[in-house]
């Protein structure tokens, strides 16, 4: 495996202030110098320390339970702590446990005490169910011990101590409280004091700012949805997809552009030996933005029983003609975690006239048929033939194809044509065509449907990469014409064709221009269990600028509303394992067997650069009830060594606990604020250099889904010919004539990232 000599880390994050936490003495009666609030300072500047402590409260005061997870909606009615039955931190079992403790306490209290203190004791015990339980019990600060009693507002605490101090020993077994606070109201209430008065009980219930949208997806002032991430895998070479076999093993199969598929087990470990390695066949180069390589994979719906799966990749035949091949493989009979490399059966081969626009998506619909998504052939403006490949139904390029892999055609093809394909009776059309007029659909997905109603089930969503004005998101329908090259997005591209085009063309559900992004990466409709707030959201992104977005359907108008997704808010993501940054270039999205949503991105879009990572989306505002999303994976025998996952990204909590040594990064104008850095061999001797976000935009990036953003107009074919063999955004040089595509040496890799970017910038300017 060849690796580049440089490392580029483009990450997206929010500003993060990292206060130095001071030691806190939560038991004021244990001696030493104590303030009236029960805090022992080791800082000579009292005012500064108080400011830092207030900052900690503002950073960490967010809905969180004592198990460090987000709150949830209990699946069943809570009989005792009913105030939190709509949203909180207790399920029915925990509610029953608190009720039992309450009645045990009340057995020791006389009838007058029942009337005077019963409600207060119940309220105090039920704070374990509060959405802000972690804050009330000081569980968010790892430097301080967990409180045995929740934080109470001073007036409420004073009244409780005056009327019910005899119940304190029943509420907690802590000897410190028994010895120093049972008879001393001031010490007791100082002990339970919270620095942020908004979060103490019962003020926390009255604070409209804290409770207005409690349990909903958090939005910032600009309407950007606040989600968080966990790092799942790293060190990948341009990860183009992640798939599951739907065999109840909950394994994840991650494919790299070079032609290697890795197996990740439910415990997060990776098997040392790959599931499949066809690097010797796949046409891939180390050039930044080269779209050729291993592009697609889909497991047969009955993989559990027949062991079949399908792949889509670029290769060069013996006559040095570049082609796309779709093949069938089978799993090894001796190892369920390895494919049989000798089992390949070719289903379809397509000659590619240019190196870009290779499509690459394979998927099975709910009808059991396989859908294939091909690009228009490359170059710029689909210059092939009178109307281009995409509008030519006798060509297979620029299409959505549908075939039956479980049968054979009478004419000898290794697949059958579904009898209800829309153009089977059209002598001028290929019977495989299901939809046409697409440019280069990069990443499509089948909607599982609403978990309860099944609404939306079977819809196929795709991101179709545009030419130089618009990116679009489409829902695939049988027989649909998506307009290219006559149209791009909602507007005309080829004016002559556009004026003569049918009014029945299928329009995108959403399209966006250059001010938003330059290369769409199609995503998924979330239908998982762990983040119920996200149900029905179509989440996708843009490869070039790393922007994450979501579409929400208005059921009344059937129109889709777009919102940006912001990752890394310190306050929202202050949970264990959650991170605040991700690599910039978003390559693909994925769904695991349980329906949870992921995306893959890299900091350097070269097929041989091991800078790719897999991230999982998490909604920090609300989770499913404990136990609802548990599943028991079917165990699989592993013959290969397991490599434990070692995270590289620091979590928000780790960063909060680090001493601040540098100034906080500046915010970017994009919703996710890019803070790219470059490091090389020379850079190891000096601190890493920060680059502005504008520098990233100038650097051509490519990747297997970038488009040729050529300025060529459709009526000037000579200009279009100049951009042959280019990526969707950046030029990709042709392979060296004297060496085969298998020659992969470090000599081909740029030794310095700056030099690489200069060359790409020069190529991009030359291609315009």
UniProtKB/TrEMBL annotation:
Chain spans, region Disordered: 656-768
Record field: compositional bias (Basic and acidic residues): 708-724, 755-768
Domain Folate receptor-like stretches: 77-225
Keywords: Disulfide bond, Glycoprotein, Secreted, Signal
Xref: Pfam families: Folate_rec (PF03024), GSDH (PF07995)
Bias type Low complexity, positions: 659-672
A GO cellular component entry from the record: extracellular region
Compartments where found: Secreted
Biased composition (Basic residues): 738-750
Residue intervals of the Glucose/Sorbosone dehydrogenase domain: 236-564
Predominant subcellular localization, coarse grouping: secreted
PANTHER family linked: HEDGEHOG-INTERACTING PROTEIN (PTHR19328), HHIP-LIKE PROTEIN 2 (PTHR19328:SF54)
Family, per entry: Belongs to the HHIP family.
Name under which the protein is recorded: HIPL2 protein
Organism: Calonectris borealis
Gene from which this protein is expressed: Hhipl2
């Amino acid at each position: 495996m060849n690796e580049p000599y440089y490392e580029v880390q483009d990450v997206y994050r929010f500003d993060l202030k990292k206060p130095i936490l001071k030691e806190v003495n939560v038991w004021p009666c244990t001696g030493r110098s104590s303030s009236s609030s029960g805090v022992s300072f080791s800082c000579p500047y009292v005012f500064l320390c108080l400011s830092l402590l207030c900052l900690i409260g503002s950073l960490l005061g967010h809905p969180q339970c004592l198990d460090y997870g987000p709150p949830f909606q209990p699946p069943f009615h809570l009989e005792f702590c009913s105030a939190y039955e709509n949203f909180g931190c207790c399920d029915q079992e925990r509610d029953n446990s608190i009720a039992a403790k309450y009645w045990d306490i009340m057995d020791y209290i006389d009838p007058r005490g029942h009337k005077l203190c019963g409600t207060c004791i119940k309220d105090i015990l039920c704070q374990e169910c509060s959405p802000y339980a972690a804050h009330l019990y000081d569980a968010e600060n790892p430097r301080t011990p967990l409180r045995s009693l929740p934080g109470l507002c001073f007036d409420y605490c004073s009244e409780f101590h005056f009327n019910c101090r005899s119940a304190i020993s029943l509420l907690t077994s802590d000897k410190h409280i028994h010895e120093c606070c049972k008879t001393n109201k001031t010490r007791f209430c100082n002990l339970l004091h919270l620095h942020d008065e908004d979060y103490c009980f019962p003020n926390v219930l009255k604070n409209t700012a804290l409770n207005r949208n409690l349990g909903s997806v958090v939005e910032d002032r600009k309407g950007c949805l606040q989600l968080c991430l966990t790092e799942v895998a790293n060190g990948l070479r341009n990860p183009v997809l992640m798939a599951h076999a739907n065999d109840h093993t909950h394994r994840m199969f991650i494919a790299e552009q070079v032609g290697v598929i890795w197996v990740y087990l439910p415990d997060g470990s990776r098997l040392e030996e790959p599931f499949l390695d066809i690097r010797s066949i796949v046409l891939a180069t180390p050039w930044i933005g080269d779209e050729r390589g291993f592009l697609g994979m889909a497991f047969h719906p009955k993989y559990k029983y027949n062991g079949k799966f399908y792949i889509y990749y670029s290769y060069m035949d013996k006559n040095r003609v570049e082609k796309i091949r779709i093949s069938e493989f089978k799993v090894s009979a001796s190892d369920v975690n390895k494919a049989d490399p000798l089992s390949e059966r070719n289903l379809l081969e397509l000659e590619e006239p240019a190196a870009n626009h290779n499509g690459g998506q394979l998927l099975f619909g709910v009808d059991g048929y396989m859908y294939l998504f091909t690009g228009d052939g490359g170059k710029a403006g689909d210059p092939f033939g009178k109307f281009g490949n995409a509008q030519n139904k006798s060509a297979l390029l620029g299409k959505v194809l549908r075939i039956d892999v479980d049968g054979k055609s009478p004419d000898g093809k290794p697949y059958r044509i579904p009898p209800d394909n829309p153009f089977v009776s059209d002598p001028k059309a290929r019977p495989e065509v299901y939809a046409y007029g697409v440019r280069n659909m990069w990443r499509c997905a089948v909607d599982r449907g609403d978990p309860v109603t099944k609404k939306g089930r079977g819809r196929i969503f795709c991101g179709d990469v545009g030419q130089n004005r618009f990116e679009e998101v489409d829902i695939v329908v049988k027989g649909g014409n998506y307009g290219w090259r006559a149209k791009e997005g909602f507007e005309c591209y080829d004016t002559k064709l556009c004026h003569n085009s049918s009014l029945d063309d299928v329009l995108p559900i959403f399209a966006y221009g250059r001010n938003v992004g330059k290369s769409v990466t199609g995503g998924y409709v979330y239908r998982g269990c762990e983040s119920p707030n996200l149900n029905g959201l179509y989440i996708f992104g843009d490869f070039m600028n790393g922007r994450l977005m979501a579409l929400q359907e208005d059921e009344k108008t059937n129109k889709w509303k777009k919102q940006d997704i912001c990752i890394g808010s310190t306050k929202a993501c202050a949970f264990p394992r959650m991170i605040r940054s991700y690599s910039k270039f978003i390559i693909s999205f994925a769904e695991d067997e349980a329906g949870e949503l992921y995306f893959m991105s890299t900091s350097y879009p070269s097929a041989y650069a091991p800078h790719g990572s897999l991230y999982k989306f998490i909604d920090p505002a609300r989770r499913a009830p404990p136990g609802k999303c548990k599943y028991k994976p079917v165990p699989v025998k592993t013959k290969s060594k397991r490599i434990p996952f070692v995270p590289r990204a620091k979590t928000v909590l780790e960063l909060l606990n680090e001493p601040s040594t540098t100034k906080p990064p500046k915010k970017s104008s994009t919703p996710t604020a890019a803070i790219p850095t470059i490091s090389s061999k020379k850079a190891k001797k000096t601190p890493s250099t920060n680059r502005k976000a504008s520098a990233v935009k100038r650097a051509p990036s490519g990747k297997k889904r970038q488009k040729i953003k050529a300025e060529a107009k459709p009526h000037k074919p000579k200009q279009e010919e100049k951009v042959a063999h280019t990526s969707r955004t950046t030029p990709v040089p042709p392979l060296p004539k004297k060496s085969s595509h298998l020659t992969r040496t470090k000599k081909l890799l740029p030794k310095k990232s700056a030099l690489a970017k200069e060359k790409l910038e020069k190529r991009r300017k030359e291609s315009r």
